[in-house]
């Protein structure tokens, strides 16, 4: 069974802006997918419609067998924890430390009061430390997150997503603000996470060379439509 299925997914922002039209995609567990396309193609809208950060106008999203567009709010909250989100601009809370930002990823599980007070169990703290070690940030844990470099911030973003024990990561231009060296580090971590933890990864990229190097499937989007869906090898042979 597919982990994620999009059926005739469409998003219209206003009369003149149809960001997605009739998108059909089926994603299996463990796939590493790069979504490529020019700026304004609809890549970001596509990822955000999957977890309903943006409400789709039409269509269906099925995740792990559940119809995401028709679940109750509480169930949506639970399912969203299974879909980690990584952003271009990291979306960290600047005044918090690195480890506090990672623990923030647990908020989806807590009542707002417990979350707002920053109360976490010993086990959760140990989990956060372990993830930060895995991502090479052991010596940065108690720094304020705004003291980090972009590449380090993105690794905090990844740890914050992983602490939810997700089945899938949606990464919206995760390396667009990073230099080539930091970009490689982030892509290597995403690859390692996909391979060793079996987590499905969907990553928006505008660098085609990076997409070709890391993904096992490429989805090309242009003007809100899928113009290519296949292997990196086939895309190079088409030219
Ligand atoms: P990409 O990620 O490929 O750059 P986007 O999904 O951000 O593309 O944008 C797709 C289209 O939708 C663009 O024409 C963009 O201007 C438009 N768009 C995106 N977000 C909004 C919004 N919140 N309101 C109106 N139009 C939007
Ligand atoms: P980030 O990666 O930090 O989330 P983005 O630059 O991708 O930031 O987008 C910032 C916000 O602007 C998003 O919520 C997006 O939906 C919105 N946006 C993008 N294009 C448009 C547009 N044409 N009109 C209105 N809002 C837009």
Automatic annotation (TrEMBL):
<dbReference type="GO" id="GO:0015416">
    <property type="term" value="F:ABC-type phosphonate transporter activity"/>
</dbReference>
<dbReference type="Pfam" id="PF00005">
    <property type="entry name" value="ABC_tran"/>
</dbReference>
<keyword id="KW-0067">ATP-binding</keyword>
<keyword id="KW-0813">Transport</keyword>
<feature type="domain" description="ABC transporter">
    <location>
        <begin position="4"/>
        <end position="239"/>
    </location>
</feature>
<keyword id="KW-1278">Translocase</keyword>
<dbReference type="GO" id="GO:0005524">
    <property type="term" value="F:ATP binding"/>
</dbReference>
<dbReference type="InterPro" id="IPR012693">
    <property type="entry name" value="ABC_transpr_PhnC"/>
</dbReference>
<dbReference type="GO" id="GO:0016887">
    <property type="term" value="F:ATP hydrolysis activity"/>
</dbReference>
<dbReference type="GO" id="GO:0016020">
    <property type="term" value="C:membrane"/>
</dbReference>
<keyword id="KW-0472">Membrane</keyword>
<dbReference type="InterPro" id="IPR027417">
    <property type="entry name" value="P-loop_NTPase"/>
</dbReference>
<keyword id="KW-1003">Cell membrane</keyword>
<dbReference type="InterPro" id="IPR050086">
    <property type="entry name" value="MetN_ABC_transporter-like"/>
</dbReference>
<protein>
    <submittedName>
        <fullName>Phosphonate ABC transporter ATPase</fullName>
    </submittedName>
</protein>
<dbReference type="InterPro" id="IPR003439">
    <property type="entry name" value="ABC_transporter-like_ATP-bd"/>
</dbReference>
<dbReference type="InterPro" id="IPR003593">
    <property type="entry name" value="AAA+_ATPase"/>
</dbReference>
<keyword id="KW-0547">Nucleotide-binding</keyword>
<dbReference type="InterPro" id="IPR017871">
    <property type="entry name" value="ABC_transporter-like_CS"/>
</dbReference>
<keyword id="KW-0918">Phosphonate transport</keyword>
């Amino acid at each position: 069974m597919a982990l994620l299925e999009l059926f005739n997914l469409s998003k219209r922002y206003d009369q003149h802006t149809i960001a997605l039209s009739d998108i059909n995609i089926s994603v299996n567990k463990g796939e590493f997918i790069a979504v490529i396309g020019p700026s304004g193609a609809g890549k970001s809208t596509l990822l955000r419609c999957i977890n309903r950060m943006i409400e789709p106008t039409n269509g269906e999203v099925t995740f792990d067998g559940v119809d995401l567009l028709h679940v109750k709010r509480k169930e949506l909250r639970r399912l969203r924890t299974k879909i980690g989100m990584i952003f271009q601009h990291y979306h960290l809370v600047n005044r918090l430390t690195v480890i506090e930002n990672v623990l923030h990823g647990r908020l989806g599980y807590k009542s707002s009061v417990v979350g707002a007070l920053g109360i976490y169990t010993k086990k959760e703290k140990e989990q956060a430390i372990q993830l930060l070690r895995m991502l090479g940030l052991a010596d940065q844990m108690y720094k304020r997150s705004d003291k980090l470099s972009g590449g380090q911030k993105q690794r905090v973003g990844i740890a914050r997503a992983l602490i939810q024990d997700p089945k899938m990561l949606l990464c919206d231009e995760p390396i667009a603000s990073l230099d080539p060296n930091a970009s490689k580090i982030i892509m290597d971590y995403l690859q390692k996470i996909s391979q060793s933890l079996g987590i499905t990864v969907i990553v928006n990229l505008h660098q085609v060379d990076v997409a070709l190097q890391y993904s096992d499937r490429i989805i090309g989007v242009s003007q809100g439509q899928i113009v290519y869906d296949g292997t990196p090898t086939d895309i190079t042979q088409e030219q």
